[in-house]
Every structure is written in C-alpha cells, then in structure tokens.
Write a structure and sequence with these properties.
370 residues; alpha/beta; six-stranded mixed β-sheet; five-stranded mixed β-sheet
Length: 370
C-alpha cells in the first residue's frame, strides 16, 4: 500500500444512473469512519451515451468497452486530483483508492457481473494503489455480488438498540435493514430512478426529473401500476439483485402497450409510485419494526418520491434523508467503496453472506499496485 501507516482512503462510484463520478476522501480507523472531502464529476454526453449503449448487445463490444474503460479511468483520475487538491494532500498520503467501475451487465444467475474499468491505468495515472473488482469474488462464492453496501451501512449508520433502514435509491433501489441486535439484511428492491430517468429522457429530453417536479403534475394510473407490479422479481425472496438487464425502456414499453392510454406526466408519476411502493413492500416484509427510514442516493433529492414513500409506508416509520445522520445522500456509495478498500487492506471480509447469498464471507477486490 502507498503508506503502511496511512488511514486515508478514496472511494469512487459511478452508478446505474450513469450521471457521473462521485468521489469521497475518508479517514478510516477500526473505530471510526470520518468523511473529509467529496467531489463530483459529471459524465460528458458522449461518454454517457457510450456507457449506455454498452448496456445492451451491440457491434464490436470488446473494443468499445476497452476504449470506454480507458476514458472512464481518466475521469476517475480527474476526480481523485480534485479531492487531493481540495484537501492539500499528495497521492503518497493515500493508502488506497477503492473504485467500483461502471456496471454494464449484471447476470449473477449466469455467474458473472461486469463493471467496466481500467484500474491498472488509474493506478498508473494517480500513483496510488487501486482496489477494484469488488463484486466478482462474491459471485464466485455463489452470491449475487450485490448489494455490497449493507455492511458499510451497518458500520456507518448502525445504532445499538434501534432498527434502522437505509434505502439507497440510485438507478436501482436497495435496502439495508440494520437490526437492533446488530444483524443486517438487505437486497435490491427493484427500480429506483432508472425507469423515471428513461421516461423523462424519452418524453422531454431531460436526464432526470429534478425534485420530482414533473411527476408532481401527474396522477397515478392504477391499471398501469398493477401491470408494473406483476413483474415476478418483486415477489422473489431475498437474497436477490437486479439492474438494467431487467428494468429498461423496452420493459416499460411492453407494460405500456398493455395499459390504457395515460398522459406522459401520469406515466412519470406512476413510475415514481412504483419505486415508492416496491420499497415500502420490502420494508414491511423485512423491517416491519423499524424506528426510522433513512434515504440516500440521488433519489433522496426527489421530493415527490420521498413523499410517496412516506404515503406508501402509511406512518410505519419516519422517512428522512441520510443528511440527518451527517452524510449527504449523494456521498454514501463513494464512502462505501472507500470502506471496502479499507477492508481489503485489512484482509477483512467485505460482503455479508446472508445478504448476497454467498457461501460465506470473502475478502473482496483485486489490488493494482501503484
């Protein structure tokens, strides 16, 4: 590692929403996780389009992915540089970078997951040890490879004697149930922003529905919501994980073709309700005695979505942003991958077998030395 005594780590996350790179600088010791800085670098339209195209089968995928991975590594490096500059640090003071990469396929049922990345290039560009490829070892051990954040949620947000639920709403939503006795359960509940983003992009040319403002002008279409909820994934027991391989524009188009006509805004609101309702169903099933629900990820900034989640929970628990716990919602996942890098350097497990379904706890990640 860069420094045997360093407790400083950088986490980099680019998620299913394909909006950009979140970076976090954090000081991690056995008893404390202390965020020190954050940075965000949006993807340029061309890179976002390239990464989106790699989500589906296409011509010359190997070369297109390799070139995208190189460009992605350079954006990761730029994010690292910003973090170091803002904190007046050098790369030599950082123990390691934990980088998730960009998921383009997630097929645990076939025994693989693919996060586009070039960690060797990132190590070369930054002069810092890079730890990457966190999901594949869990899949090799029979797990889903996701979600990996529940273990971090316990370390960061768990409180003895309280049952807390952390809901991460990115492109896909996942929940972590932090039980009062220290136990953790969690899984992907289904779509987060992915369908809402796809629909508003198709209808209005926007990347996302800022604050849920457009959805708020629409109304629920019960027949459409019922069709959406027919998806068998929602009824599957945990452990389970999902992604764009299932929830995409074509999936939505097939449901719309079977429903009665609805205005574009009504569809947006109904998709917002779908995310809220499926999260609420998961909470009622796996965390019925929760004291509070804390939301992180980009979805935490969607006021309409948070209101609908509270409605769907019908007073079962309060719904608040992770900001009330001291961590901005859009920084949580980057912090998680810094923590996973820390766990790797300590040769400690990063997964929770009961969450992912793996045969046991495993050290996650692969090291690319500086």
């Amino acid at each position: 590692m860069n420094s045997a005594s360093s407790t400083l780590y950088i986490g980099l996350m680019s998620g299913t929403s394909l909006d950009g790179v979140d970076g976090a600088l954090v000081d991690i010791t056995p008893g404390a996780i202390t965020p020190l800085g954050a940075a965000y670098l949006p993807f340029p339209p061309a890179l976002r389009a390239t990464l989106m195209a790699l989500q589906t089968v296409g011509h010359d995928e190997i070369e297109r992915e390799a070139l995208a991975a190189n460009e992605l590594a350079r954006y990761y490096c730029e994010c690292v540089t910003t973090l170091l500059t803002d904190a007046a640090l050098s790369g030599a003071q950082i123990c390691a970078i934990g980088v998730h990469g960009q998921t383009i396929r997630h097929r645990p049922e076939l025994g693989y997951t693919r996060q586009t990345n070039n960690p060797a290039l990132l190590a070369e560009l930054t002069g810092i040890d890079v730890i990457a490829d966190f999901r594949s070892r869990d899949i090799a051990a029979g797990g889903q490879g996701a979600p990996l954040v529940p273990a971090f949620h316990r370390a960061m947000f768990g409180k003895a004697g309280q049952t807390r639920i952390v809901v991460n709403i990115g492109g896909i939503s996942n929940i972590s149930v932090l039980h009062a006795d220290g136990g953790v359960s969690g899984f992907d509940t289904g779509p987060g922003n992915v369908l809402m983003d796809a629909w508003i992009a198709h209808q209005l040319g926007c990347d996302f529905d800022a604050g849920g403002a457009w959805a708020a002008t629409g109304a629920e279409r019960p027949d459409l919501l019922a069709l959406l909820l027919e998806e068998p994934y929602f009824a599957l027991p945990a452990p389970k994980s999902t992604g764009r391989d299932l929830f995409h524009q074509q999936w939505l188009d097939a449901k719309l073709a079977r429903s009665s006509h609805a205005s574009a805004a009504d569809v947006q609101f109904t998709l917002t309700r779908l995310t809220a309702v499926t999260i609420a169903q998961a909470i009622r099933r796996y965390g019925p005695r929760a004291d509070a629900v804390y939301v992180c990820g980009g979805g935490a900034y969607n006021r309409t979505l948070l209101r609908e989640l509270a409605v769907a929970l019908d007073g079962q628990a309060t719904v608040e942003s992770s900001a009330v716990l001291g961590v901005a919602p859009n920084r949580v996942e980057a912090l998680a991958f810094a923590w996973l890098a820390y766990r790797f350097t300590q040769r400690a497990a990063g997964n929770l077998a009961n969450v992912t379904g793996a045969r046991g706890e495993r050290i996650l990640g692969a090291l690319y030395p500086r």
